[in-house]
Amino acid sequence: MIKQITLLGSILAFGIACEKSATLPNENIVVEEAPKDSISMKEDSIVVKVGNQSFTAALLNNETAKAFKALLPVTLKMTELNANEKYASLPKHLPISPIVPSRIQAGDLMMYGTNTLVLFYQPLLTTYSYTKLGSIIDPTKLAKAVGNADVTIHFDIK
């Protein structure tokens, strides 16, 4: 009986200790909140043309997306990177508000730094900082369109 009470007391003490440690704040974790920008498909849509295929991208309502839209039309030779993205330098630096998105979706259009435009054609997890401009509405054929090499992409106002 004493062994059972001792065992029960040990289990309770262990459970309380685990609960306490689970609720202690971890000062090393930084949670980034995604920007509360909205997507407006009518006013802030652009065309992304790859070869003879056109995609519609919805831009976020933020300063970076507005500054990018002001550069259009623009044609960029985009460089292949990591079998999941294309990137190119823009002719002008844009205002940015970078966050670490952790998960990026196919079709996401983002800024890396102030003048590198990145178009993701495969989903991925990341620890890098980006400023999101918007995303392609239906990216199902995007990976095939951009291929696995450098590609020229034309961005224009819809």
Explain this structure to me?
The chain is α+β, with helices and mostly antiparallel strands. Strand 3 and strand 4 (85-89) form a beta hairpin. Helix content is 23%, strand content 34%. The model is unreliable at 4-42 (pLDDT under 50). The chain has one domain: Cyclophilin, CATH 2.40.100.20. The chain has three helices and ten strands; from the N terminus they run H-E-E-H-E-E-E-E-E-E-E-H-E. The radius of gyration is 23 Å and the shape is globular.
Global outline: globular
- Termini separation comes to 79 Å
Largest sheet: 8 strands, antiparallel, barrel
Count of DSSP strands: 10
Write down the overall mean pLDDT: 83
Q: In which order are the strands of the major sheet placed?
A: 1-2-9-6-7-4-3-10
Counting structural domains, the number is 1
Order of secondary-structure elements: HEEHEEEEEEEHE
Class inferred from helices and paired strands:
alpha+beta
Q: How many helices does DSSP assign?
A: 3
| Rg on CA atoms, Å | 23 Å
What percentage of the residues does DSSP assign to strands (E)?
A: 25-35%
Unreliable runs, pLDDT <50, ≥5 residues? 4-42
Summarize the model shown.
The protein is an alpha+beta fold and 158 residues long.
Features:
158 residues, alpha+beta, Cyclophilin, eight-stranded antiparallel beta barrel, two-stranded antiparallel ribbon, 3 helices, globular
